[in-house]
Amino acid sequence: MPSKLIFGHISSVPIGTTFNLYKEMNEVGLHRSTMGGISGSGRTGADSIVISGGYEDDKDMGNVIIYTGQGGRNDSGKHVRDQELTRGNLALAISQKEGLPLRVIRGKDPKNKFAPAQGYRYDGLYRVESHWHEIGKSGFRVWRYRLEKIEDSSVLLENNFSTISPSEGNPHPERKSITTQRIVRDTKCSKELKKHYDYQCQVCNIRITTASGPYAEAAHIRPLGAPHNGPDTSDNILCLCPNHHVMFDLGAFSIQDDLKLIGIDGELLVKKGHEIAITHLKYHRDHYLDRIKAP
Amino acid sequence: MPSKLIFGHISSVPIGTTFNLYKEMNEVGLHRSTMGGISGSGRTGADSIVISGGYEDDKDMGNVIIYTGQGGRNDSGKHVRDQELTRGNLALAISQKEGLPLRVIRGKDPKNKFAPAQGYRYDGLYRVESHWHEIGKSGFRVWRYRLEKIEDSSVLLENNFSTISPSEGNPHPERKSITTQRIVRDTKCSKELKKHYDYQCQVCNIRITTASGPYAEAAHIRPLGAPHNGPDTSDNILCLCPNHHVMFDLGAFSIQDDLKLIGIDGELLVKKGHEIAITHLKYHRDHYLDRIKAP
Question: For position A84, which CATH number holds?
Fold first, then answer.
């Protein structure tokens, strides 16, 4: 087992390689954990995961995977306590924050059409798009992660610009490894809301100006996409500066129904004509708010 | 001609459609300008451009295009004054800031292997990745833009999550239009620098904390990739909060050789062990610093 985590492809293991045993994946350095589904460290991030249908809440949509964290279960697999944002769960959250590529291995699972018929198969790199917590069917808290496939076509074919790729046999050895740390998405509705606030942050009231005009970001309170499926409507969007957008998405603060902030001091600025749905605020508090002391 | 700018594909014009005349592209709404290479507005952004070899500095690498702005030339096409960040040039800068998709049309150009043999061809959507200014061969300032192709595979096949696609004949009418406003890239070297600063912003000294650890972004002073080809070395990287990263990339401030800030008050925090190359600082000042009063 290598002593240092390797993020990205393992040069000797092409996508699609299959294995019969966990142990074999461990020996080639594909998945360093001999037991758990998450390989990684609560200090530097997660380098690989195995999806094998262990959690009924996992949802595999191919290029998008909703993955459940580890822990909180007793020896017979029954949920008996909350999952904590530690060890493998923290590792996956760090991978999101730092933009680290995650190797995804699918294990046999008759209920999952994307799973191999037997054994384990290396299915390439994903990025951790988001993480949140929720109360599982057993009544205890679980951590969940939305993983999105990193497409090979995202490789930019220039000398010193590429995503992480197998180092062995690389025809362009001068390439550097580049990953994506953060993607800010924009929608039609978010453009209108930013204009409504004249690009002023609803948390700190800062207005970033540049020669090409003011800059702000639109934050969906209840996120778009599975499994949240928040709407792209102005009652679900905030106009934030990039700093408060990052903090909101990573749960460093949330918002009460009376618009007071939780986690940081202050109150949300809301301009006339912008109605915020309190059900979406509750969704953010219930799933994103960091209830653990920040390190 | 439609009265409102349409960003993204035009439903009646598939990628690869060819035209003989400018006027024909105008009639179908593909390119609204009847003369200029840039269609758009200095208020809302650019919706399409034509590349046809008019500027010798343009560099077409297929999925990446370095495009030169408009203006500054006399009737015989000779550069006689600086280009300004107004009209089409400002429109392209706004497209970058807002993450708007840009239709790219290539015109006949024997010197460009990506150009059609005759007429004009619609080649799909690009995003404006960055813009800067430089002194052209004639001694006057030109504005330049790095355009990156938006790959179709970036479409996420989920109900309410997709990039902008032709609306006509869309089999999933419930899909929303989503574009990318901002992509933060990360490199091996940038991770180390962020740790060196313990994730503290070198401009405002803020340290954003979350349950999954502190968050910061690495900003390359002289950008990676063509045509800048800055190195991924610590003497070319700053550790910044997202707000100051956006401002630095959009030229709202720059840094003197003595580390005093230009455009905003203050001085860069530099910790022992981090040597910054002043040639890279000069590159940023010469190409990115906003020398125009911000609106």
Answer: 2.30.280.10
